[in-house]
Every structure is written in structure tokens, then in C-alpha cells.
Amino acid sequence: MIREGCFARVVERLNGCGGWWEVDIRTRITSKSRGNIVPLDITCDTNPAWLLRMTLDLETSRLQLLRVRPEDWEAYYPIFSAPETSQFSDLPRRPTEKRTRGFVNWMVRISQQSKGFGWMVRDRGTGVLLGCIRLNSIDKQMSAAVIGYEFGTSFWGRGYATEALVAVTKHCHEAMKLYRLEAWTVEGNPASERVLEKAGYRHEGTQRKKMVIGKQRFDTRLFGRLADD
Length: 229
Prior knowledge:
Mean pLDDT: 80
Helix content: 25-40%
Shape: globular
Low-confidence stretches: 1-49
CATH class of the largest domain: Alpha Beta
Radius of gyration: 20 Å
CATH topology of the largest domain: Aminopeptidase
CATH architecture of the largest domain: 3-Layer(aba) Sandwich
Largest sheet: 8 strands, mixed
Strand order of the largest sheet: 4-5-6-7-8-9-11-10
Strand content: 35-45%
Number of strands: 11
Structural class: alpha+beta
CATH superfamily of the largest domain: Gcn5-related N-acetyltransferase (GNAT)
Order of helices and strands: EEEHEEHHHEEEHEHEE
């Protein structure tokens, strides 16, 4: 029998964000009198209201940012597997379909665990998949997150990445109450740096020869944005 003051793990089904979400919540069992078990107070940092804010689909004038689903891997594969996508990142070179499914499932998993979140970016008019943007990690104690993104090469130079990043940045600061956001680029990728700068991120420093791509080492450039910037 569960006693007062014990902890139990329950599944809370949250309505919203385009459907039902199942969220594992650690709940304290309390009671007004002995023998009556009433789960009341959420006692860990996995707050349903916080998760609901995190899992919102977003829209801009041209784009829909939809939470990542396992079935998205097939449309994402041509973007993820393009050599240009991994040229300036730590993504795998020429990944297989299996590797792509695994990466998409990883984004789904970190979303479910509230350790990160991923959005597939689609053209609002046609529904065509343009790219992906995500919070690779979230540090709730520090109120910070690391952002990553990639877009199909045929959609480069049209402002889609900037538009998506501005929307996610605004959502993270205002709805999720994350104070600090950061991202990194590899030397030789000025296009991604312009995307970050247009969205209000500042170059904060260079880490020498931190990234290994293929058999070469590259500098990485750190960009950050604060909620009160």
C-alpha cells in the first residue's frame, strides 16, 4: 500500500500541442486523512505546464515548425544525408536510412524526456519539408539550451533558417523562460554565422581545433544570446 509522503511515478496525459502527450511525472502522494491517497503536488522539475510550453508547434509568416515524429525520417533523409549538410557539423557523413531513423528517434526521445526538443520546418503553403531545428540539450537548472539546425541545400539563401531560428529563440525566451541560448559553428561556415547574427546571437569566442570532421581538426566558434539582450 502506498503511504503518505511516498513517491510514485504516474503517467500524466496532457491535452494540447496538436494532440495528447504522455509525460512521466514524479508525484508526491499526500492525503488529508489516513487511508485516502490523493496525488497532489508535483515535486520534481518535470512540470506539466513547462512541458506544454515546450512542445508547442510554431508558425511564422512562411513556415510551420512541427514537433518531430518518428515517421518524419523518410522526408528528412535527403536533407540529412546530403554531404553539404555534414560539411560543417558533427553529423555523420552520408548516413544510411537506418542512421537517419536513429537520429530522428533520438530527437523524439529527448523531447519525451524533456532533455531537448526538435521541430521539423515545413513550408506553410505547400507542406514541403525544408529542414530541422532543435534544442540539442536543455539545462533547466542553468535555464540554458544549445540550438542546432540544418536545411536542405535547395532552400539555402532564402532566409528560412533565420526565420525559423528567430521563432524558436522567441519561444525559448518568452514561453519556456530559458535565459541563455547558444550555438556553435565550424570555421569556414559564414552563412550559418550570419543566420545566428541576424537572430541576435553574439560571437563569444573561438575554441581552437575542438571539432574533428573526417581526419581534420577545426576551430569552433561559439555564439550566445541572452533573454535580456
